[in-house]
Amino acid sequence: MFTVLNQASGKSIQSSGKESILDAALAQGLNFPYGCQNGFCGKCKAVILRGEVEYEGKVPPALTEEDLAANMALLCQCRVSSDLYISVDELDDLANIEVRSLPCRVEKINRLNHDVIQIMLKIPGAQSLQYLAGQYLDLEHSDFEPRAFSIANAPVNSNLIELHVRLVEGGQFTNFIFKTLSEKTILRIEGPKGDFFLREESDKPVILVAGGTGFGPIKAIVEHLISVNSQREVSIYWGVRAQEDIYSNLPSEWASEFDSINYIPVLSEANSDWEGEKGFVHEVVVRDFDDLSDYEVYACGPPIMVRAAAAGCLEKGLPKKSFFSDAFEYAFEEDANE
Ligand SMILES: Cc1cc2nc3c(=O)[nH]c(=O)nc-3n(C[C@H](O)[C@H](O)[C@H](O)COP(=O)(O)OP(=O)(O)OC[C@H]3O[C@@H](n4cnc5c(N)ncnc54)[C@H](O)[C@@H]3O)c2cc1C
Ligand code: FES
Q: Distance between CA atoms of 71 and 51, rounded to whole angstroms?
């Protein structure tokens, strides 16, 4: 057994070196930040102050040459091979939330448009899933590897979970969901996961940037803000290719009902009859705000969009600690920087 001591919190864990350091930390109740858990998003980066870690196979893509030179490691991918001394900022808000594996029944399947399905999952009996608005879960079926999907409803009725699933061309699990999955099927979920959730201690205005089904967790966040009667100013930017990709009218309805909510849909491949915003969603956000130093930005969707939004917002003065994101990373992305 090795000991891993987090200098930032003074807490320590034990690891045999068989599991990732992140898995060991989460299992022992330390709320280390993480996102994709597959080596792409870089959210689990930590500084190794002393000791050795090892990776199975190649060094993962989210670690740059500079990261390696600065002795950084990806905790979701590496294992301990000696006692370790590391530095990680743990997340307080997740302290009382347990990651659970639960059975669930497919209660309802609704086709929302040509390539997005809404799935309502019911957790049987008196059980429920405690989570924060914005988090995701792993959906499990015995024939497939678990797949990550964000929870699209606010945590008010937490034995009913809503997911928005986009069909991936050639994708095994999403094709199964679209073609074969039927109501009443029993699946399993494991969650909640991730550090993409609304920071409620702040009263700063929020800019919510969604790409495609990245609207799911953004919807959960807005529903939560509405349910707690928040007075925070909310700007929702939803980027999709064409008008038929806007699969929900809810943002328009929120904007007409609440003075504090503003909604801007942005089409990257608009028809000539579209009178709204055109281009890439992050470009419109950056154009609309001169100074983001007093805002919080939450961005969710394709990795390229999330990275571009981060770069653009930081240039407009957004503090790094006020940018929160979930990138829908997947295992075989060819070039994250393309
Ligand atoms: C934290 C997180 C939250 C997510 N939340 C959602 C969500 O709420 N809704 C949602 O629709 N998706 C979401 N995703 C993405 C979702 O997990 C993938 O689309 C899904 O795993 C694809 O599974 P598959 O078996 O159909 O594809 P696979 O069989 O695993 O992949 C087939 C091929 O498609 C490519 N591919 C896989 N996924 C994508 C993708 N998303 N976009 C483009 N190409 C892809 C792969 O590289 C591969 O070449 C999320 C991902 C993460 C990491
Ligand atoms: S790279 Fe480790 S959680 Fe994404």
A: 10
